[in-house]
């Protein structure tokens, strides 16, 4: 479940499918990792009366907010692993070993020192598949 702030309320998106790819490369002796995440979700919960799900612009805006939320969470987790824990809990070293075995031989012995400075790019794509039944929010009656 991904909660997205929307104007004066929030929208809950149930993530029904998630796929990830992780690739690495070494440029000028410096390792880089690229993470791609694709999620598909359904709108499951709406707590705002400012939402018009009949407009594709609204759906795109929600998708962008889900992408931003997920990207932020991933980046914060990576940052914590690199700066506080200083441990490769995500297995990026294994990814480099798989993608660039010759370069990994050079990096392996210094990986604990190289990991905190590892460049990691995160790309997230979100699609909202179903929006449910479109009716006016009961919150309109409360205001």
From TrEMBL:
Pfam families in UniProt: Spore_GerAC (PF05504)
Xref: InterPro entries: Spore_GerAC-like, Spore_GerAC-like_C, Spore_GerAC_C_sf
Domain Spore germination GerAC-like C-terminal: 8-132
PANTHER family referenced in this protein's UniProt entry, alphabetically: SPORE GERMINATION PROTEIN B3 (PTHR35789:SF1)
Name under which the protein is recorded: Ger(X)C family spore germination C-terminal domain-containing protein
Origin organism lineage: Bacteria, Bacillati, Bacillota, Bacilli, Bacillales
């Amino acid at each position: 479940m991904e909660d997205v702030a929307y104007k004066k309320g929030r929208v809950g998106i149930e993530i029904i499918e998630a796929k990830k790819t992780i690739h690495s490369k070494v440029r000028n002796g410096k390792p880089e990792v690229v993470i791609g995440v694709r999620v598909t979700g359904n709108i499951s919960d709406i707590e705002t009366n400012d939402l018009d799900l009949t407009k594709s612009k609204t759906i795109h805006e929600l998708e962008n907010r889900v992408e931003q939320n997920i990207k932020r969470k991933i980046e914060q987790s990576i940052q914590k692993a690199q700066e506080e824990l200083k441990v490769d809990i995500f297995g990026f070293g294994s990814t480099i070993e798989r993608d660039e075995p010759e370069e990994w031989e050079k990096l392996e012995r210094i990986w604990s020192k190289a990991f905190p400075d590892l460049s990691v790019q995160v790309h997230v794509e979100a699609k909202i598949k179903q929006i449910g039944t479109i009716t006016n929010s009961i919150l309109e009656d409360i205001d």
